Amino acid sequence: MKAIGLYRYLPINDPESLIDLEIDTPTPTGHDLLVRVQAISVNPVDTKIRAPKPQQEQSPKILGWDVAGIVEQTGPECQLFKPGDEVYYAGSVARPGGNSQLHLVEETIVGHKPKSLSFAQAAALPLTSLTAWEGLFDRLEISKDAASNAGKSILIIGAAGGVGSIATQLAHFAGLKVIGTASRPETIQWAKDHGADETINHHQPFGEQLKALGLASVDYIFCLNSTDKHWDNMVDTIAPQGKICSIVETHGPLNLSALQPKSATFVWEFMFTRSLFHTSDMIKQHQILDTLAEMIDSGKIKTTLTERVSPINAANLRAVHAKLEAGNTIGKIVLENFN
Fold first, then answer.
1. Which residues span the membrane (predicted)?
2. What is the pTM of this model?
3. Considering its fold, how many domains does the chain have in total?
4. Around Cβ 324, how many Cβ atoms within 10 Å?
5. 52 and 22 housed in the same domain
6. Cβ(155)–Cβ(220) under 8 Å?
7. How many contiguous H segments (helices) and E segments (strands) does the chain have?
8. Predicted pLDDT of residue 327
9. 79-136: per-residue pLDDT in tens?
10. Which candidate, 64, 120, 126, 140, places its Cα nearest to that of 89?
11. Which end of the chain is more exposed for a tag (fewer CB within 10 A), N or C?
């Protein structure tokens, strides 16, 4: 079957950084589904894993952790899906990614594709939606009951990106006052179209901008861009006993002691934790994706697809990686249709 992968970790402008491959079709065992891939999306995790390094692979490394497709076969222990079911999922970073015509994935982290969406629209959602949901409701422990969140606020740093585009929608649905960071007219508009009540500029100090909006502090902060860069601003603007969650690794130590006077909480969100460690609640990702599908089909949440690319091949995938690395994308880019 066709796939796209790498043997060497190279700059994206090198044609060997991602190459077209022919690999064997895997066989599903246990709780695995064999999915015929219809569409894929690209996330920063793809570019980070692919980034230049001395390591070389003996067998091809397949990336890709956003898939929408059709179940082709099921393992003997599968109970949640059957052949022909339309699905969407992010998969596991510990296994080969979904940049292949057929892909193995454990059913407990797979959701039924929203009926109202095309495969391309659905492929834009899994990784970012799971990250946003887990960050807001599992890590920050925000209630999903809008009435209980009356008067509470959240600052979402990077509101126009892939995760931010979902997080703003979910936070708005949860009844929070949502302040997103954005700096360009198009990203400001995108953030407001996706649930942000207000925006501030992440290139300027947060405190004065929040005061201009009538806020002395915020109850929650969800950091989706440069934890290092925004740390002092987050410490300054988080409310006493507030909570901060970040998805972006640091390049040096953080001064956690700065949060002590406020008894503030700092917590990480890594969407692959459940599948990487096979946690006892791993099936929750299946449940989250199914719940999100219901919310999408009822019009409460919308896809964040902004660009479609066809077909799925190495040249097109390299071009999309390059766009993500440039750092100016809004929403999600999806590739569809293997030749």
1. none
2. 0.96
3. 2
4. 19
5. yes
6. yes
7. 10, 16
8. 83
9. 999 999 999 999 999 999 999 999 999 999 999 999 999 999 999 999 999 999 999 9
10. 126
11. C
